Amino acid sequence: MLTNSLPKYEYLAPDAVEQIHETSLMVLEKFGIEFNHPEAVAILERAGAEVADRESNLIKFPRQLVLESLAKAPGEFTLYARNTAHDVVIGGEHMVMAPVYGPPFVHDLDRGRREASMEDFRNC
Predict the structure, then answer these.
(1) Distances in Å between the alpha carbon of 61 and those of 22, 25, 97, 109?
(2) What is the model's pTM?
């Protein structure tokens, strides 16, 4: 397993990071997020989120709920494979090299630029 023991590079000043954090909390609480899955809406509501609009499944997240949830998140966790030799630790100083789904958009001469599909992914 690869690890990175080099110091982390700080791209933003601490006050800028705090401003982004505060703004994200405000957006979640004031504007919310629309969810397309009824079961996700039910789970979030049971957890304390507010269903602001049942027609669009707009969920608003009280600031305290977000902060409490963030406090519960671990600094690292293990993704377990069927073969334990392939378990992967995410977070901390661990580095993970893994393929991703693919491009969100593709372009070809016949159809131009468009959202990618699983067929496009297989063709790549």
Answers:
(1) 13, 8, 33, 44
(2) 0.69
Mean residue pLDDT across the chain: 92
Cα-based distances in Å from 111 to 56, 79, 115: 32, 38, 11
The answer to whether the CB of 1 falls within 8 A of the CB of 94 is: yes
Is the CB of residue 42 less than 8 Å from the CB of residue 57? no
pLDDT in tens, 54-92: 999 999 999 999 999 999 999 999 999 999 998 999 999
With tokens 């809406």, the residue in question is: 41
- What CA–CA distance (Å, rounded) separates 42 from 2? 39
**How does pLDDT run across 107-118, given as a tens digit for each residue?**
889 889 998 888
85 beta partners: none
Of 55, 53, 49, 56, the closest CA to residue 28 belongs to: 49
Q: Are 113 and 105 in contact (CB under 8 A)?
A: yes
Residue 72: closest CA among 64, 80, 83: 64
Kindly list the domain boundaries of the chain, sorted by start residue: 10-73
